[in-house]
Every structure is written in structure tokens, then in C-alpha cells.
Amino acid sequence: MPAPKPFVIDIAVLPDSAPGHALALVELLRTANLLARLRLGARAPRMAWRFVQAGGQPLPPETGLLRGLAAEGDGGDTPASALFIPPLHLADIPSIREAVRAQRALGQRVAHLVDTGGLVCTLGNAAWFAAFSGRLDHHRLALAWYYVAAIARERDELAEDVAAAGAQVRRLLVDGDAAGVV
């Protein structure tokens, strides 16, 4: 019986990415693969990963530490079923906004995955890529409270959802929680 096709996750690594979060995901996937092999042997499905640029191209081979981890996670020609976008190591909203605009191809990849039923996971301020993909209407997105208004100001189609979530956001802030849901 042939081995099952791997579940492939593309991990976006951008110039401003916080790489530790991407590496933490890889460690989680490595552990999941180990546990699956211990339990099911050769029949175990495998989680695979690729480090990619915004447009989905593989990172150049000279990318140091990631090279060995990329080889271990290789999913071959299997298309990605999911995309993970780690947070950007940027200090303020204007910098995040500029980075998202500069990496439009990543927003297009988010849109494609949403359209084809794929999974998209963002961490921290990487949620801006999802917000600017044009595919969030009536989808839920967890945002830090300080991003909610800034995204709503720029994305008219999200303004109605943000207004509807306003009472919930205010309640969360009064209760001392630092998250808003759009």
C-alpha cells in the first residue's frame, strides 16, 4: 500500500517575518509526524511544509538554517492545503500596512486558498494579509483590539462587520481582554 499523500503547509517567510514563530510551527509538525509514525508506522499520514516567498516560490537554497528543515519537510509536488503566515517584526500600523501592500502576492495566495477551500492561519499582525485578501466578508478573524479600527477604516467591506462586532469588542475591552473578533 503506498504511503498517503502528505498534508502540505506553505510557510511564508518574508523580509520582515518573525522567523521564530515559523520555526515553532515546524517543531510542532515534526512532533506530530513522530507521534504518527510511532502509532501507525509506514501507514502514518505525514505533515509536510515548505518555506516560501510571498508568491509561493520556494526560498532560495542559501537561506541557511531553513535549508535543512525545508529538506526534512519536503512535500514533493503535492500542492499546499494550508498557508501559515507568521507575524511581521514591525513596530507600528503604518509599517505593517506598507509591508502588506509590498507583498500583494501573499494576499492573492490567501484569496486563492480561501476560494479553493484551503486553510489559512495567521499569527499576530499577519492577520492584515487576510484582511486585505478581499475574502473576509462574513468570515471571522481574530484581531488584537488595536488593529480592528485601523483595518475597518481601510476596508469598507469590513466596516459593517466591524460595526456589528463593536459591542462585543467593547465588552472584551471592559473585561480586560485584548482581543476583538471581526
Characterize the structure shown.
The chain is an alpha/beta fold and 182 residues long. The chain contains seven helices and six strands; from the N terminus they run βαβαβααβαβααβ. The protein has a four-stranded parallel sheet with strand order 2-1-3-4, sandwiched between helices. The protein has a two-stranded antiparallel ribbon with strand order 5-6. Strand 1, helix 1 (19-40) and strand 2 (47-52) form a beta-alpha-beta unit. The termini are far apart. The model is unreliable at 167-182 (pLDDT under 50).
Beta content comes to: 5-15%
What pattern of helices and strands is seen along the backbone? Answer: EHEHEHHEHEHHE
Structural class: alpha/beta
Give the helix tally.
Answer: 7
SS elements, strand count: 6
Low-confidence stretches: 167-182
Q: What is the averaged pLDDT score?
A: 79
Helix content: 40-55%
Overall spatial form:
globular
Termini distance?
45 Å
Side by side, the strands of the main sheet go 2-1-3-4
Main beta sheet, described? Answer: 4 strands, parallel
Radius of gyration computed on alpha carbons: 18 Å
Could you give the topology of this structure?
Elements: E1 7-12, H1 19-40, E2 47-52, H2 65-73, E3 82-85, H3 93-102, H4 104-115, E4 119-122, H5 127-131, E5 142-144, H6 145-154, H7 156-174, E6 179-181
Parallel strand pairs: 1-2, 1-3, 3-4
Antiparallel strand pairs: 5-6
